[in-house]
Amino acid sequence: MGVDLSVEVGRIRMKNPVTVGSGTFGFGREMADFYDLSQLGAITVKGTSLEPWQGNDYPRTVETPSGMLNAIGLQNDGIDSLINEKMPFLRQYDVPVIVNVVGHSLEEYIEVASRLDKVEGIAGLEINVSCPNVKEGCMVFGTTPQGTAEVVRGVRAATGLTLITKLSPNVTDIVSIAQAAVDAGSDALSLINTLMGTAIDPWARKFRLANVTGGLSGPAVKPVALRMVYEVARSVDVPVIGMGGIMTAGDAIEFIVAGASAIAVGTANFVNPMAAVEIIDGIEEYLTKMGFASVDDIVGTVS
Amino acid sequence: MPKIPYSMKGIYDCELIEQSEVSEGVWLARLMGPQIARSVTAGQFVNVQVSKCTDPLLRRPFSVHAAYPDEGAFSLLYVVIGRGTRLFQRICAGEKISVVGPLGTGFDLGDQPHTEHIVVAGGCGAAPLHFLCDALCEKWGCEHITVLAGGRSKEAVLCEDEFRSHGVDIEVATDDASYGYGGFVTGLLSEVIGQRKGNESNIRIYSCGPHAMMREVARICHESKVANCQVSLENNMACGIGVCTGCVQKIKAPHTQQGWEYKRVCKDGPVFNAEDVIWE
Ligand SMILES: Cc1cc2nc3c(=O)[nH]c(=O)nc-3n(C[C@H](O)[C@H](O)[C@H](O)COP(=O)(O)OP(=O)(O)OC[C@H]3O[C@@H](n4cnc5c(N)ncnc54)[C@H](O)[C@@H]3O)c2cc1C
Ligand SMILES: Cc1cc2nc3c(=O)[nH]c(=O)nc-3n(C[C@H](O)[C@H](O)[C@H](O)COP(=O)(O)O)c2cc1C
Ligand code: FES
User: Fold this and answer.
1) Interval A225-233 mean pLDDT
2) How many other CB atoms are there within 10 angstroms of residue A52's CB atom?
3) Do A267 and B3 touch (CB under 8 A)?
4) In chain A, which residue's Cα lies nearest the Cα of B7?
5) Cβ proximity of A121 and A97 under 8 Å
6) Largest CB tally within 10 Å, which of A40, A190, A295, B4?
7) Is the pTM of this model over 0.80?
8) A94 vs A25: CA distance, rounded Å
């Protein structure tokens, strides 16, 4: 008997607990050169806005010790392109699609959500109220419980899709924001988005990113992410998607036993485009070896 | 299973066959990788994992310098400039290196016979252009190709002997006038185009090197109205495979409001039409 890898996040049935970090997988097309996307538990696509966003000036990325900073600024082709060009491609695969939604204003979030509501193949929306690289909207909402609740409530009224709120680690009390999102109708939570940071070239005495600040991701953020996932998961009763520096199946298991029902592979995709599928295999191997029947058996079992 | 377009792009564990310092701080590495060697085209690059640790975390992009499809090998020519390239240089023959590739959009070799192809190389921009010369020679014959290779000094001019051994016409420019034409390679380019007055519409230019050099190449090409001018650009890369939108370049886009859009150097490039690039 094989182990049961399937998990549920809201009404999204995932065949295994592994999705990908929004913005680290594009809209799937480039990754399909490496493996069959149907192997994933879910695909979370790049942040998508009502109109196309051109993003920030470059340099947009810089490597840091065991991590990287990015200030992409949510460059994306907008919702029409998602519906007409990207979704038909993704529908070829047997995999739920989660769309990361961004907006400059509450109205934009609501309009994107309502237009995606009936699009075939979309299983859920991840409300990004935590992007550190865009001046208006976005993180402005995500840094207070009230702001977060306002967006979640608005979007909740506009869609019947599973709603996942993506939380920012750049806050004093992530648990209160998590609770506000759940109270406002979020079916699940995902965390963490990137940690705000910067990098400086000492010889030129210049910032290394055109945007000055960027979001830190990769192995460097894992301890912070793990702590936040643990604290949030034990204080809410909705599923949590954990992410932040996951490179291996071992990292993924740490997030799951800390309380995550599912996990997302982000920056690891850049280092090893096969990372997500290797992590799925590794989780299965772990469960088999340890004698567990399912992923659910180990969620939140850390002591 | 859905139909997935066939692609040789992949992650391969490539054995390092040998590497040596060909000029001060410049290394030539030969790797075993049949899939890459047999499918890579001139101007494409590979993304090399120089360390198995998480620091440095990201792969390093290098243009393919030559492909040997029969042996299943390919080579990279790189300048040791920071941590990643220092680690690369320390990898020993026989060790396996994880390589993602072939990546990006390479050079368009044209479809008109009787065209003259002028290749303008600056420093380690010689790497992709060396491969390009192989491809141009094979397609059009070496007698139609002129290489203009530039560097700060004689030592900084890379691949000169290899270019010569192709049997292409080569002229060298050094900034310090220690060898060949004294001055920037772009000055040499102006002269060479000047010698072909009236024939500009029959010339295709290919260039790789420092950004400022390529900008000047683009300007000269624009003014002299050569048939086509392609440049191979660089930018910081996180993924190298087109998913992060980190490596962008402003490219003209008449259909947009501001007239340009950000294109990914790793996927839509690294080779772009010089006329389309917004030079800053
Ligand atoms: C498509 C492409 C093809 C390339 N082909 C070659 C080649 O054939 N031969 C060669 O010698 N070099 C090539 N480069 C540049 C090469 O990737 C960088 O020199 C290398 O990544 C530096 O790594 P490092 O760790 O030694 O230096 P670091 O310590 O990381 O940085 C040293 C310097 O290199 C710059 N740099 C760092 N990463 C990159 C990057 N990804 N792209 C450009 N500059 C960077 C930094 O801004 C810094 O100034 C290419 C770059 C690209 C994007
Ligand atoms: C280049 C890049 C782009 C990203 N874009 C988005 C985005 O559009 N929306 C979002 O919610 N998170 C975005 N993120 C954050 C990731 O989804 C993830 O939350 C974060 O990187 C932590 O996970 P990791 O360390 O595994 O990468 C991005 C991260 C990176 C590195
Ligand atoms: S480096 Fe990620 S899109 Fe080019």
Assistant:
1) 98
2) 17
3) no
4) A33
5) yes
6) A190
7) yes
8) 17
